[in-house]
Write a structure and sequence with these properties.
Elements: H1 2-6, H2 26-36, H3 47-55, E1 61-66, E2 94-102, E3 105-112
């Protein structure tokens, strides 16, 4: 924490871990709301962070950019790595609210139901 502050980070908030090594993100969101009056938080994290947010039901909107490119990499990372669903009915449901072209890409705006 000291190294991060000396490197110029004004606000350092250590996180505890939940069982299974997943981060408990609720205290961080509470801190952002109280210390910074944040009502919206944009998270561009890796598959594990995104999975933790979904597992803890902390997601209400998902923005997905789709590029017109196919990489076909068998070692590609998952976009979301969370707790698996035993049945398809238990999956997180998304509702498409809007879509728009951004250059050659498409931006999909979903709300979590």
């Amino acid at each position: 924490i000291t190294r991060m502050r000396s490197a110029g980070c004004d606000d350092v908030f250590p996180l505890s871990q939940r069982c299974g090594g997943r981060l408990d993100l609720r205290p961080l969101l509470r801190h952002l709301a109280s210390a910074h009056a944040a009502s919206n938080v944009l998270v561009e994290g890796g598959a594990g962070v995104v999975g933790s947010l979904f597992d803890q039901r902390l997601v209400d909107q998902v923005l997905v950019y789709v590029a017109p490119k196919v990489l076909g990499d068998s070692d590609a990372l998952d976009p979301v790595r969370g707790s698996p669903c035993a049945q398809i009915d238990a999956a997180h449901r998304l509702e498409l609210v809007s879509h728009e072209r951004v250059g050659d890409d498409v931006l999909l705006d979903y709300r979590v139901r």
